[in-house]
Design a protein that fits this description.
The protein has 166 residues and is mostly helical. The chain is built from 7 helices and no strands. The N and C termini lie far apart (132 Å).
Length: 166
């Protein structure tokens, strides 16, 4: 065996753990940004801007994480939001069924049921009990409010003259 086989080869580059924590090398004295081409300088400045934005974003996210509540409070807030959503969806279903079956506002709030089908059954039952909201009742002709009596030709002529003179 030769000496080359017996002696372990020393790596020319440090292990990855050492490079991760090492400072970036200082630029050589002859490497100046002014000597670089324009496209390289623009790419370099764009990369620096992006890195600065990422550092700011990281700092903001760390601040948000520090201000976050504990998981139990977050779960309680999520549960509260889910409850409010379910209540809103139920109210929306009531309103939709009330319009569908032409129910008065007082009866819309009384629609009950665990799911949409049960609520629709209840709305149908309420619609059968409620008076039809079709046409309003006709006025009694004996109480007035009917069509006025037709004007005689002399009255029509007098009305035309009066409107022209005004």
């Amino acid at each position: 065996m030769t000496d080359a086989q017996e002696t372990p080869a020393t790596p020319e580059t440090p292990p990855p753990d050492e490079t991760a924590h090492a400072e970036p090398p200082e630029p050589a004295p002859g490497n100046d940004e002014a000597t670089l081409p324009d496209w390289v300088r623009s790419e370099l400045s764009r990369a620096r801007d992006e890195a600065a934005r990422r550092r700011i974003e990281l700092r903001e996210l760390k601040d948000q994480l520090a201000g976050m509540a504990d998981p139990d409070e977050a779960k309680a807030a999520i549960q509260l939001a889910h409850d409010r959503l379910a209540e809103t969806e139920q109210q929306l279903t009531r309103e939709r069924l009330g319009r569908k079956y032409h129910l008065p506002e007082a009866l819309v709030a009384r629609i009950q049921g665990e799911d949409e089908e049960a609520m629709e059954q209840d709305a149908k039952a309420l619609a059968e009990l409620a008076p039809a909201a079709g046409r309003p009742p006709r006025p009694d002709r004996l109480q007035g409010g009917g069509d006025p009596a037709p004007l005689s030709p002399a009255d029509r002529f007098a009305q035309i003259i009066q409107t022209r003179l005004r």
